[in-house]
Amino acid sequence: MKDVETRQVNRDSLFLLAQLRVNGGEELFRVKVRNLSAGGMMAEGMAPVTRGMPVQVELRNIGWVAGNVAWKQDERFGIAFADEIDPRLARAPVAAAAPSPISAAHRPPPAAQAPAPEKLRKL
């Protein structure tokens, strides 16, 4: 795609935190996801990236996604994904884990009941 064509791709502006792995390394960097589309994202953070460098980013509800740094300016950089994703998944709430069986002895105490309205004082 030409640069002009890529500006027309639908993007979701959002603010998420993600983990970034640079050039196949083990070290993880926390980045802010500023916008996200099926083919890429804009991130912001202190990751040591350069244009063309391979990266992997862990996106909420999607998992690890491979790509390459498309551009870099100051602390912001673009990532072009190797394969398209569904960006709506990253916006969805994190799926709740199945409750684990807890014995009565290890259960937290029930929440205290709210006091009767006549017992409350005005501030």
What is the number of beta strands? 6
Decide which structural class fits the backbone. Answer: mainly beta
> Architecture of the domain at 3-86, CATH level 2?
Beta Barrel
Poorly predicted ranges (pLDDT <50, ≥5 residues)? 96-100, 102-109
Report the mean per-residue pLDDT as an integer.
Answer: 80
What percentage of residues falls in helices of 4 or more residues? under 10%
Q: What strand order characterises the main sheet?
A: 1-2-3-6-5-4
Rg: 21 Å
Q: What's the helix count?
A: 2
Task: Spell the H/E element sequence.
Answer: HEEEEEEH
Largest pleated sheet:
6 strands, antiparallel, barrel
Separation, N- and C-terminal Cα atoms:
62 Å
CATH superfamily of the domain at 3-86: predicted glycosyltransferase like domains
CATH fold call of the domain at 3-86: Thrombin, subunit H
Strand content: 35-45%
At the first level of CATH, the class of the domain at 3-86 is Mainly Beta
| Backbone shape | elongated
Task: Walk me through the structure.
By secondary structure, the chain is mostly beta strands. It has a domain at 3-86: predicted glycosyltransferase like domains (Thrombin, subunit H, Beta Barrel). The chain has 2 helices and 6 strands; from the N terminus they run αββββββα. A 6-stranded antiparallel beta barrel has the order 1-2-3-6-5-4. β5 and β6 (76-81) form a beta hairpin. The longest helix is centred in the last third of the chain and has 5 residues, at 87-91.
